[in-house]
Amino acid sequence: MNKRKQQKDIDKAIANLIKYSDSGVWEARQVQFFDEVLSGVAESLEVPADKFYETLEDHGYMETGFVYLFELFASTLWDNEEDSMISSYIKRRGWRETPYAKRYLSALDGSEVQLWEIVDVNAGYWVNVRPVGSTSKTMRVDERLGSQSLEERDCIAARVISLDDKYRFGGGILLFSKEQAQEIPTLLSQAQEHVIKSLKQLSLEKQDCQWSDEDILAIAEDQMQEKLPELLFVFWASQTYVALTMA
Questions:
Q1: Collapsing DSSP states into helix, strand and coil, what is residue 150?
Q2: CA of 198: how far to CAs of 34, 40, 191, 203, in Å?
Q3: Cα pseudo-dihedral 141, 147, 152, 153, rounded to 10
């Protein structure tokens, strides 16, 4: 199967998944999820939520934000349920998709957002990436469109999906400048310190929460990993809004 046919199958599957999100229990959950995230960004900026949304929408950034958040919503487990929306869709309506598209959806469901550094680019073909702050061996990601706008030393929040012995990005990619990327580790460290402080206070107040310092650190790290995709979105959206309103 050529790459054009593969992409066509993926696009069709995502379109069907979006339709599925507007049905049943997922419709209300999606509204709640987007409202909470976007309202949280607006609150941190101390601006009305509609003004924040309209600013990004008018300048073409909300489409990027939607794709990123939709993938996050679609792969999230709600209320300790066994199935995310993606896995629910595959079980109930996966027969509509090609085998390749179903494999893509399953790989997307199992992927995680990470902060990546662009190490090398072959525009129109691929990019080599590795986790920010790492010196590990790079991963080559097949990427036709994104590789044309990415540059060495850029940083992105994205899902790297392993499919059929190759890597590709998910649809939602948040681009950070070199200067912004340098701020992110400090912001994440501050957020983790806030979580640790809250956990220590809870440990003092409740008898059933008597954790050691090692326990608290482990819990904080787990919470930060869980919240990382949302924190990266909040930082990206906030920085984008500030840049647009100051221009």
A1: coil
A2: 26, 20, 11, 9
A3: -70
Give the distance between the most distant pair of CA atoms in the chain: 60
Residue at token pair 């939709």 = 70
Q: Quick one: tokens of 95?
A: 């027969």
Please tell me the distance from the alpha carbon of residue 56 to that of residue 244, in angstroms, as a whole number.
8
Q: Which fold has domain 113-176?
A: OB fold (Dihydrolipoamide Acetyltransferase, E2P) (2.40.50)
| Distance (Å, whole) CA 42 – CA 182 | 23
Contact yes or no for 105/90 (Cβ under 8 A): yes
Residue written as token pair 């649809």: 171
Q: Which pTM does this prediction carry? A: 0.89
- Tell me the C-alpha distance between 110 and 208, whole Å: 33
> How does residue 207 score in pLDDT terms, banded at 50, 70 and 90?
low
Integer CA distances (angstroms), 22 to 14, 28, 37, 84, 114, in order:
13, 8, 18, 15, 28
Residue 79 sits at φ, ψ, to 5 deg, of 50, 40
Handedness of CA 158, 162, 168, 171 (dihedral sign): negative
Tell me the C-alpha distance between 188 and 177, whole Å. Answer: 17
Integer Cα distance of 246 and 55 in angstroms: 12
Place of tokens 């941190």: 44
pLDDT tens digits, one per residue of 37-46: 999 999 999 9
